[in-house]
Design a protein that fits this description.
The complex is a heterodimer of chains A (257) and B (381). Chain A is an alpha/beta fold and 257 residues long. Helices cover 27% and strands 27% of the residues of chain A. In chain A, the strands form three sheets. Chain A has a nine-stranded mixed sheet with strand order 11-10-9-12-8-1-6-7-13, with helices on both faces. Chain A has a two-stranded antiparallel ribbon with strand order 2-5. Chain A has a two-stranded antiparallel sheet with strand order 3-4. In chain A, strand 3 and strand 4 (23-24) form a beta hairpin. The longest helix of chain A has 17 residues, at 35-51. By secondary structure, chain B is an alpha+beta fold. In chain B, a hairpin with a 2-residue loop joins strand 9 (272-273) and strand 10. The longest helix of chain B is centred in the middle third of the chain and has 37 residues, at 234-270. In chain B, 54% of the residues are buried. The chains are: A alpha/beta (257), B alpha+beta (381). At the A-B interface, helix 2 and helix 5 of A face helix 1 of B. Chain A: Heterodimer of an alpha and a beta subunit. Chain A: Belongs to the ETF beta-subunit/FixA family. Chain A: Its cofactor is AMP. Chain A: Pfam families: ETF (PF01012).
Chain lengths: 257, 381
């Protein structure tokens, strides 16, 4: 099994987002592997351990993303690839990310590609499906169970509060939903070995990609924080008075009825 | 070129993140109950064994991970931050149980005794303290007399951490007398040896989920080859061992204090009095600032002592400074954390009272604060 996992470096979920000058400030912020990608890495490791083969984790980003790749190697991935666009590109979007990944993966003969369901920063959930389309392979999103038997694959996927069972075949791209597995803590020997595992760094040139080919199609108009939530109000008095006041407030203050 | 550098290495950073998550997600839950029920955290240590943490600083050939002392300090701090009983169990396992075998054991002894410690099959323990002897080795009364190629050991040890869960441990005993001088040696003794009784009946102030035992040895026989290190060097070897152990105790102190500060910060932001949160009162802010200062200073010095050890340089004075300062500041920080919590701080549910009870041991174990000051003074006089 030749397995690839798409990984994204994202803000720590505990991190406070600060917007300044129309940009999210990254100084001093902690970064993590996108939590949904951790399910993808865990699943890849389990499938490799059961079926043999190799797990390669791939990310697009800058030098800093090496830390997240090393963590994936410490969890048990075999190799890592950093497609470094720091010098070539100012911006990436779903289109350009999928295109770059497809150029990298097109001759790799991947049996299985795993990604997170969404990244917790952009939250588009598009890169996986777009990539599968560019590679011309099957894809299934939000999977919570993955069974592989030869080239046949049985999948359970999450469909907003219910499950869907379906069958498909390799080569395949799936995106991981919470519940697929319980990602392991990297072991200490894993951490100590991570540095010695191969980490290949590529630039757009190495993939024969012209900067014009990956010009973003999404324009960011504005970045702002959600409005501060005001403290809730507790209505008082007997029940009928409270109901009356609530209706009144919904009409005159919230203007929803 | 060696330049000043306060950054953790990539491995240390990854380990810190991993063990911090583990501590929050696994160790923290149940800490109140374990304290109450004196329940040893067996399951937590099973997981730590699977994660390869139990043999952290020891060579890979014995099943260790070959990590450094700073990594050991990081793990000890993070475990202690949510459960100091788990922290001391780990610290003693590595620095008192494993370290003397690693430092003074023969190839054969390491294979036989260090390997199960690295895999977590056996906990590490160390038998030094006696009813009349701790830092004063002269008071040692346990004897080991050589008879037909066997040491016959008689005596007792007190306050020994982890022994109920150890398959073997090293202990000090008098192997000869020269007038008034006692020749003290270290000997490895299997805990299932005939005549070896281990009791854990202490009623302690804190660290209730850790295992503290009394050892009674009545004609316990072990082969002469169980001598650890050089005959007559037993006490000197254990002083070296304690230098490393003090880094562990100091790291525990930093962890407990950090845990107490985190609780105090959280509470101060939530608790309202006189229409404001406690955190809006300067009286609270000054307390929290003082706590932060103390913790930062202590941690920096723990890392320095650990770094010196990793460089193979003398670190005895720095380990004593770290242990003395960190353990005293931990008591102060825990005390203030309770004060910020007011009446709730006196209640077990809010955990800071446990932090204080647990922290007290750090001013006592592996050399009291006063002994640390003796060590420090000896270095500057």
């Amino acid at each position: 099994m030749n397995i690839f996992v798409l990984v994204k470096r994202t803000f720590d979920t505990e991190e406070k987002i600060v917007v300044s000058g129309g940009k999210i400030q990254e100084d001093g912020a902690e970064f993590i592997i996108n939590p949904y990608d951790e399910y993808a890495i865990e699943e890849a490791i389990q499938k490799r351990d059961a079926l043999g083969g190799k797990v390669t984790v791939v990310t697009i980003g800058g030098e800093d993303a090496e830390k997240q790749l090393r963590t994936a190697l410490a969890m048990g991935a075999d190799e890592a690839v950093l497609i470094n666009t720091e010098d070539d590109l100012d911006e990436l979007d779903q289109y350009s990310s999928a295109y770059i990944l497809s150029e990298y993966l097109k001759d790799k003969e991947a049996d299985l590609i795993l990604a997170g369901n969404v990244a917790i920063d952009g939250g588009s959930g598009q890169v996986g499906p777009r990539l599968a389309d560019l590679l011309g392979i099957n894809y299934v999103t939000t999977v919570t169970s993955l069974e592989i038997d030869g080239t046949n694959v049985k999948i359970v996927r999450d469909i907003e509060g219910d499950s869907e069972v379906l069958e498909t075949s390799l080569p395949l791209l799936v995106t991981a939903q919470q519940g697929l597995n319980e990602p392991r803590y990297p072991s200490l020997p894993g951490i100590m070995k991570a540095k010695k595992k191969p980490l290949e760094e590529l630039e757009l040139d190495d993939l024969d990609i012209d900067e014009d080919d990956v010009e973003v199609k999404v324009e960011t108009v504005e970045i702002y924080l959600p409005p501060q939530k005001a403290a809730g109000r507790v209505l008082e008095g007997d029940l009928s008075a409270q109901v009356k006041e609530l209706v009144n407030l919904l009409h005159s203050e919230a203007k929803v009825i | 070129m060696n330049a000043m550098n306060f950054d953790l290495t990539a491995e240390q950073g990854m380990l810190q993140k991993m063990i911090r998550e583990f501590s929050d997600e696994v160790v923290a839950s149940g800490a109140i109950e374990r304290d109450k029920n004196k329940a040893f955290p067996v399951e937590i240590f099973k997981q730590l064994s699977d994660m390869g943490i139990m043999g952290l600083p020891f060579p890979e050939e014995y099943g260790g991970a070959g990590a450094d002392t700073i990594s050991f300090a990081i793990v000890t701090e993070e475990l202690s931050r949510t459960c100091a009983s788990t922290g001391i169990t780990y610290s003693a396992h590595i620095s008192l149980g494993g370290a003397p075998l690693h430092l003074f054991g023969t190839e054969k002894q390491k294979e036989k005794y260090l390997t199960p410690i690295c895999t977590g099959e056996s906990f590490g323990a160390f038998g030094l303290t006696e009813p009349n002897a701790g830092s004063d080795a002269g008071g040692t009364e346990t004897t080991a007399s050589l008879e037909n190629g066997e040491f016959v050991i008689n005596g007792s040890k007190v306050f020994i951490t982890n022994a109920s869960y150890a398959k073997h441990l090293a202990l000090t005993a008098i192997t000869d007398r020269n007038g008034n001088n006692k020749e003290i040696s270290a000997i490895i003794v299997p805990t299932d040896a005939q005549g070896f009784t281990i009791k854990s009946e202490y009623e302690k102030m804190g660290l209730n989920a850790s295992n503290t035992t009394e050892l009674i040895l009545e004609n316990v026989r072990v082969p002469e080859e169980n001598l650890l290190g050089v005959r007559g060097n037993g006490f000197k070897q254990f002083l070296t061992t304690l230098d490393g152990g003090r880094i562990g105790i100091a790291a525990m102190a930093v962890g407990i204090a950090q845990g107490a500060l985190n609780k105090a910060v959280q509470y101060a932001k939530e608790r309202k009095q006189f229409g404001k949160t406690l955190s809006q009162f300067q009286a609270t802010q000054f307390k929290l600032a003082d706590m932060e200062v103390k913790i930062q200073l202590a941690r920096t010095f723990v890392y320095k002592a650990a770094w010196l050890k990793d460089q193979g340089r003398p670190f005895g004075k720095e380990a004593a400074i770290a242990k003395y300062y960190a353990s005293e500041m931990a008591m102060e920080v825990c005390d203030e954390a309770i004060q910020i919590h007011g009446g709730y701080g006196y209640m077990k549910e809010y955990e800071v009272e446990r932090y204080l009870r647990d922290a007290k041991l750090l001013e006592i174990g592996e050399g009291t604060s006063e002994v640390q000051k003796m060590v420090i003074a000896r270095h500057i006089l």
